[in-house]
Amino acid sequence: MTLNESDDLEKFLRNIDQIDELVKEFNSTDVSCQEKAIVKADQLISSLEQNKSQKTSINKTILNPNAPQNIKNERRQSQENFLRTLEKDAEERNQRRKIKEKTANALREQGNEAFSQGDYETAARFYTEGLEQLRDMQTLYTNRALAFIKLKRYKEAISDCEWALRCNEKCIKAYIHMGKSHLALKDFSQARTCYQKLLEIEPQRETMVRAYLAQVDVEEKEVLQEKAAWEEMQKATEQATAITVLLKKLTRPNQIDLYYCGGLELLSQAIRDTTGQTLLRLNNGFDIIKDNFLSCISLNSKEPCAADLCTSIIKLWRTACSGNEQNQQLLLECSTARQHLLQMLASPVPEIQRESLALLCMCSQTQRGRELLTDKLYSHQMVEELVSSVCRDSSSTSAMTLLQNLAADKKFKILSREHFTDVFALRLEHLLSNTMTSDSKTLASMISLIGSLALDDVINKDLVGREEFWRCSLQSMMQCVGCEYTSVLYALLGLLINLASKTSPVMQDHAVLFSRRCLELLSDSSGGVITRACGLMSALLPKSSDATQEVVQNDGVKKLLRILKAGGEMSSRYSIKALTVCTASTPQACEELVKLDKRLQTLRKLLGGTDELVVGNAALCLGHCLKVEGAASGLLGTDCVPLLLRWAAGDSKRAAVQQNAAITLGKLCKVEPRHKGKLRELHGLEVLHSR
After folding, report:
1. Over residues 55-61, mean pLDDT
2. What residue ranges define each of the domains in the chain, with the CATH number in brackets?
3. DSSP alpha helices (H): ranges in 236-348?
4. 643-654, pLDDT tens digit by residue?
5. Which of 141, 333, 399, 438 stands 20 to 30 A from 242 (CA)?
6. Which pLDDT band, with edges at 50, 70 and 90, does 79 fall under?
């Protein structure tokens, strides 16, 4: 926007404010105030006419052209005329604005189309033409700012963002684009300020803002590293000189492979710290490796020198990229390097494959590294090779470590949806069905990997609906007997607990058999296995009445009560939930619990705890047991009423806990009226009514 255009906009806004004040004065009950308003209106109209005659010959609406001669006699008529003129002018302005909005939106669409095709100059031109129609259209400013960013016209982008914020001070895109522009100009402080402003406007965008701020930190760190590297180069330090000389020697053509291998090894040794890594980058070390070696090495050659040369290159990359996200990005953005890395993963030479995996594992240790690998290197071929490597060589942990690290990245999960069945699910089912002959460590790791991927809703739904997966999982659980399979059983139960939170016909068909196996596992020697067996039961029983009957009829109440008495945070949560489902479903479960737990001592102990998930289910379970004859009278003289009153009166952050306690307290007093005496003694009714 030009300076003249800015002045016009400011004058227009001032005129609007003046007219608003005049309307207020005309509506005043003070006659003198009204008389002054008429004079001011005449002056304003005159100034607008004068400005109009100086600027353009286009006919515009004239406000109140005939100023009153006799103020007292024509005051009312002037006021009415002025208001009618204002209304007419407002309507005309509204119609003109609608026409301009339509034109501006059409230009915006044309700009968007040009932008999508990568023609940023044309896009910026269309957005500019749109702004000539409508100067207060926020979207046009932010769109043009993004086009300017693509054109590296960062100062112009910042200016557009500032205008967008004048239109809407909470414009998210304006702060994002302005932050990116400041970052490109290496103004890290201003970039941080822009991104932090996003949190003030929309705190729910914390994850996005954290990523933006991390990028600012990375680029600021890069600037500082390059500054330190240039200082070393100017001082001609030993490290700087060695790296420069070695890179020059490596460009010599027609040398034997052993010469290049030695040079690459010496170069790796010369890089001693972050400054050395930066010196390699500043001296175009990555390009030298790409241009002089990657184009000529044979990855399928079994010649010792060829394999050594390839290994030396990977080791240099590892040294240069260790803890250095800038170098990792530079390496992975090179299409030639990416192509060779994928080939190296599938190399028939074990050492090349090991070094390649080690390099990628190193990159995957940070969030930024995982994002780079997913964005730049992900392919069906890569994932297929990694999973095959895991299944082929159980002694190698690098491939599994890399997969598990990548599975923590949201985008990796999304990209894996398409290949989940053939790459992951089928292999897992094969391993599960052959648990006895599979390597237990590999199988446990594979299950954990699938568990991470299944946090994605699409993958989770796919896996939950697989009949073969549930069949193979049950088969594996039956085969897992003995301490050597504890890790497999523990991992598998954890995966099944997460999957069982969703309902599916396939899972319900297998609920009885899984619940039966879980009951057996409640006697396992591993506390972790017992806890997760309870967890799987607590997830399955609410979805299958047949599974609940199976548990109750096979001493499930007794076993769950034993676990509750033993204590433990997660085991208590799982077992009381399972027990509550059982007592809600069958009178037999209630009778057994009342018989086994004298005066429901265990449930009362849980009510005295602080874990609200446990307390809520304990209150519900106790309420179920009151149906048993003598259960309510057996609680006379106990702390049951004060415990329930405490939670029913609102000593809980969860409404469900308060509700369960109140319902059970009401049942208790209804079944055994003598409990009302204790409730009155504690002023229970007053307390409950005050809530």
Report:
1. 46
2. 3-102 (no CATH), 236-334 (1.25.10.30), 500-596 (no CATH), 598-691 (no CATH)
3. 238-250, 257-270, 274-282, 285-289, 304-321, 325-332, 335-345
4. 999 898 876 778
5. 333
6. low
